Amino acid sequence: MATEAEAEAALGYEQARDELIEVVRRLEAGGTTLEESLALWERGEELAKVCRRWLDGARARLDAALAREEERADED
């Protein structure tokens, strides 16, 4: 059985983003109990972390690609 961390890691960026949007929509709509609101907030925080990890990884890949291009330009 997958751990919670493994399950979170398996979420793609778009999937996590879409779920986060739904969590925010539900929180903004109101009508939930305090306990439900807290659970939604916690889930939103987890999803935001997943999105941040994906974006940080994408930035690192882009930075590495740009650095390689710069090195190639300097060699020419």
How would you portray this structure in words?
The chain is built from three helices and no strands. With 76 residues, it is mostly helical. α2 runs antiparallel to α3 (34-75). The longest helix is centred in the last third of the chain and has 42 residues, at 34-75.
**What's the helix count?**
3
Look at the helices and sheets and give the structural class: mainly alpha
- Give the tally of β-strands: 0
The secondary-structure element order is HHH
Span between termini: 52 Å
Q: Uncertain spans, ≥5 residues at pLDDT below 50?
A: none
Morphology call: elongated
Strand content: under 5%
Q: How many whole angstroms does the radius of gyration measure?
A: 18 Å
The percent of residues in helical segments reads over 70%
The residue-averaged pLDDT reads: 91
What does the main sheet amount to?
Answer: none
Provide a brief overview of the structure:
The protein has helices spanning 4-10, 13-29, 34-75. It has 76 residues and is mostly helical.
